[in-house]
């Protein structure tokens, strides 16, 4: 007797759209940039002042835009209140709904305290710039350095919560072996610092600040972050090939026969090694050639941004192509609408608008972090980095004007 067996496979929509990639990218740049402001904001290091100025702009702008992308990824943004009406301490997303607003408030407070002395100096400027500076500075009282340091420490503590929850809400998903690994959260942090350092190199160029000190510092951050990311990736791979069971072994098995995943791994390896090698070349050149070579460091910044963003695209979008209940891979075509290309472009456009508003109305080039109205005098034993940073500070004041 002949018989026919029909197998029906239901069609599943992807759970996370590119909005999630934008959120994970923006929030990673935010907390990484915050940590790059710490030497100047907490310890008052003048040598780190140019970097802190750029890092604070990157931090506040991405912190403002990241929650917008997160709300859009809820598919029904107005339902965000469910996180508070039906709180669940066993859900990392529910925990994140508490940590993220507190982090946002701390960053807004930190930016206001750091920029307030510069705003106060612009209170009597004619036009809308002076009006906004007078309104934002909220009086002429002094801004204690200790208060800036305390708020920065609180923001750093909350940023650690952001790092932990964004990594944990992926790693906790056992249905996806490529997510369910202890190596993913630290890799998200490492690539976040890579993207943040790259963004600061680009902002240093396009803003006209062109600080050699900031370039050198960000190249060292890139060197360390790339080294850490490479070590994590290598450990993840060794864990997978040496274990017969476990999420890492299952993850490698799920993509073993996929040419696209092999190409992705090859692309990631070549890009990371190339970026690491290029940074070493720049840092080991002779002092006479370094200023000329540093002028092109912003190109490495673009590569670093690309690396940080594409890693999140692979993790959040490409992983969803791997079938969970059947063999093979699902195809995903990026739509042109708000849940696809338009959403990606729109998020970056919103971030650019935030940067432009800061450029127009905040005298960030004159900001002396920590409530100091004038640069701290350097003693006779000041290091060359401190001297260079002071020079950068003076050049910033005499350089590109603030349009506010």
UniProtKB/TrEMBL annotation:
Keyword Membrane assigned: yes
Asked if the record carries the keyword Transmembrane helix, the reply is: yes
Question: Subcellular localization, per the record?
Answer: Cell membrane
Q: Where is the composition biased (Low complexity)?
A: 378-396
Q: What is its main location?
A: membrane
Q: Which GO terms describe its cellular component?
A: plasma membrane
Q: Which residues form a coiled coil?
A: none
Question: Mind telling me which residue stretches traverse the membrane in this protein?
Answer: 20-42, 54-72, 92-115, 146-167, 187-206, 218-238, 265-283, 295-316, 336-358
Positions of region (Disordered): 373-404
Membrane topology of this protein:
Multi-pass membrane protein
Keywords, in A-Z order: Cell membrane, Membrane, Transmembrane, Transmembrane helix
Q: Which family does it belong to?
A: Belongs to the NrfD family.
The record's PANTHER family line, in alphabetical order, gives:
PROTEIN NRFD
Protein name per its UniProtKB record: Tetrathionate reductase
Q: Which species does the entry assign this protein to?
A: Vreelandella andesensis
């Amino acid at each position: 007797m002949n018989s026919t067996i029909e197998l029906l496979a239901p069609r599943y929509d992807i759970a996370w759209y590119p909005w999630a990639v934008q959120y994970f990218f923006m929030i990673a740049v935010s907390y990484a940039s915050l940590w790059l402001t710490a030497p100047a904001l907490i310890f008052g290091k003048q040598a780190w002042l140019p970097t802190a100025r750029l890092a604070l702009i990157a931090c506040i702008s991405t912190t403002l835009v990241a929650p917008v992308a997160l709300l859009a990824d809820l598919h029904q943004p107005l339902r965000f209140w469910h996180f508070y009406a039906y709180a669940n301490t066993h859900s990392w997303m529910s925990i994140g709904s508490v940590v993220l607003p507190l982090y946002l408030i701390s960053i807004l407070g930190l930016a206001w305290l750091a920029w307030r002395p510069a705003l106060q100096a612009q209170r009597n400027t004619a036009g809308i710039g002076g009006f906004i500076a007078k309104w934002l500075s909220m009086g002429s009282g002094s801004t204690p350095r200790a208060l800036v340091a305390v708020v920065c420490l609180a923001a750093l503590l909350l940023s650690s919560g952001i790092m932990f929850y964004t990594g944990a809400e992926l790693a906790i998903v056992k249905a996806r072996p490529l997510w369910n690994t202890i190596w993913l959260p630290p890799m998200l942090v490492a690539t976040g610092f890579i993207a943040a350092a790259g963004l600061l190199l680009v902002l240093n160029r396009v803003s006209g600040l062109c600080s050699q000190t900031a370039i050198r510092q960000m190249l060292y951050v890139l060197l360390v972050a790339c080294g850490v990311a490479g070590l994590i990736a290598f450990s993840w791979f060794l864990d997978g090939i040496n274990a017969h069971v476990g999420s890492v072994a299952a993850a490698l098995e799920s993509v073993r026969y996929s040419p696209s995943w092999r190409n992705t791994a090859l692309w990631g390896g070549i890009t990371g090694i190339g970026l690491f090698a290029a940074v070493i070349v720049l840092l080991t050149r002779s002092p006479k050639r370094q200023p000329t070579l540093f002028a092109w460091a912003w190109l490495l910044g673009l590569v670093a941004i690309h690396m940080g963003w594409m890693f999140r695209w692979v993790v959040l979008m490409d992983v969803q192509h791997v079938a969970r209940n059947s063999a093979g891979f699902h195809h995903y075509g990026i739509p042109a609408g708000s849940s696809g290309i338009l959403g990606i472009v729109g998020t970056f456009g919103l971030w650019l608008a935030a940067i432009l508003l800061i450029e127009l109305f905040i005298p960030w080039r004159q900001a002396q972090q920590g409530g100091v109205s004038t640069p701290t005098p350097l003693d006779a034993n000041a290091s060359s980095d401190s001297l260079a940073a002071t020079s950068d500070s003076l050049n910033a004041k005499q350089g590109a004007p603030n349009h506010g």
